[in-house]
Amino acid sequence: MVLRLILGDQLNYNHSWFREKDDNILYVMMEIKQETDYVKHHIQKVVGFFAAMRIFAQVLQNQGNKIIYINLDDEQNTQSLTQNLQWIIRENEITQFEYQLPDEYRLDEQLKFFSNTLNIPTKVYDSEHFLSKRNELAEFFKGKKTFLMENFYRMMRKKYDILMEGNEPITGQWNYDAENRKKLPKEHRPVEPLVFNHDVSDILEVIQKQNIETIGSINPKAFVWPINREESLQLLDFFVKECLPLFGTYEDAMATQYWSIYHSRLSFSLNTKLLSPLEVVKRAVAHWQNNQTQISIAQIEGFVRQIIGWREYMRGIYWAKMPDFQHLNFFEHRQKLPGFFWNSQTKMNCMKHSIGQSLNLAYAHHIQRLMIIGNFCLLSGINPDEVDEWYLGVYIDAIEWVEITNTRGMSQYADGGIVGSKPYVGSANYIDKMSDYCSSCFYDKSKKVGHKACPFNSLYWHFFERNREKLERNPRIGMAYVTLNKMPDQQRKEILNQAEIYLNKIEEL
Ligand code: FAD
Ligand code: SF4
Fold this sequence. Notes:
- By secondary structure, the chain is mostly helical.
- The protein folds into 3 domains: 2-125, Rossmann fold, CATH 3.40.50; 136-199 and 228-321, Serine Threonine Protein Phosphatase 5, Tetratricopeptide repeat (Alpha Horseshoe); 340-508, DNA Cyclobutane Dipyrimidine Photolyase, subunit A, domain 3.
- The protein is 47% helix and 6% strand.
- It has a 5-stranded parallel β-sheet, sandwiched between helices. It has a two-stranded antiparallel ribbon with strand order 6-7.
- Helix 4 (105-117) links the parallel strand 4 (96-100) and strand 5 (122-125).
- Residues 348-350, 428, 431-432, 437-438, 441, 443, 445, 454-456 line the site of iron/sulfur cluster.
- Iron/sulfur cluster binds at residues 348-350, 428, 431-432, 437-438, 441, 443, 445, 454-456.
């Protein structure tokens, strides 16, 4: 009998493993504390994964496959991946062990090590999920100093012939980012997001009885995330019809009233592999092709770029740079993460709102993650280990390969410029331009110093001043130093002093 392991983020119904039923194959899936406890996760994330895994196992069983599903509270559950595998191999007279390449370095190492201890053969399969191989990016950029996403993205467009005419982009232009940066107009009401309504009380009860420590809140009678293939396809359909027409235009916009604006919220389905990136892109491109009078090229290009560009790029960076990547701390930041990250009790409205939404919904869209929460962490010099831990726990879609590259790389610049060519930082000016947060904030967006001065304003200049040696020669940052150098001494002193005051009472901000 062959034993095949399916990990919690390998819920790919279309994997070649499942094309034919074979009585000589036993599948195994497990809910284990090894996975719930390696970081403190959002309760919706744990529930979402277990719910999707249970349905996946049920579908496989209904199709006539043999499967062992170990529940979190099963008596035989050792709560360790490899110890569970050991007793299953022993009790079922397993003659071969097979698994799909894990997407996390941690699990990859664990399974490699485990396989070496077995006295039966092991076979490893591709997860058949990504559009590039694990080490494709490393090979693509071999010998290059910088890993420019744009170059990788163009290669992927050509390779998969997406929005292309021969070797050229279909409209003659590769990138429409410049058109995609609009604030949400005051009267504009985005479409109501499609949410699901699952009763997950039974799963929640097990998690609570097993004393799994989690963060965030959940409504167990109305769990909003898709947990099976049908719902994931429904969400994709909703996205292309209702959100794609304005996806790019308001991609960077933030609004107090609307939590996802025109974003797809497909990341959970994509990262658990309920949806494949190629089907998502093909569906979106087909819809655009049939509706070109209503949907501009900037919208579809913006979306395609996220999936075949950024998503594949981040995965490639992960495998090219792990395990060293997880320890990088370019700015040597050591500040502790303030307590308000766990309860959203801060007077900074942008942070209160973005953190609050993350804790309530296990979701924040890209710009909230990057330009509000990440921006604050970088400006205040928070230790990237703590930033990573928070991001890895809080989001429904957080799996290390895509979390750490975005957080430590893109957002915290802790990699010293592998992912981004400059740190993503902004003052209240940027936040006010892209959101409505500032108008109802305790702090004054236009003040740099004094009573109620917005913390982002002084921290912004403090960041550049304290990292002068590391950043001043970066040609993409030059302007910040030109402004800083031109500032009258007294003014600069006051701003830096204000930042110090804020950093010293960061818990009270
Ligand atoms: P949309 O805006 O609708 O985009 C469509 C899809 O494109 C996403 O579902 C995602 O699969 C992909 N995508 C977009 N941007 C990126 C990106 N930068 N990297 C990789 N894929 C991208 N994404 C995760 O999936 N898991 C994470 O743990 C995660 N952590 C992040 C941490 C930080 C600090 C930042 C700045 C970004 C992070 N992202 C992460 C990327 C991005 O913010 C999320 O993929 C996105 O917000 C998910 O929401 P959505 O499905 O509505 O995305
Ligand atoms: Fe955020 Fe400052 Fe605007 Fe308040 S004033 S919402 S703290 S940027």
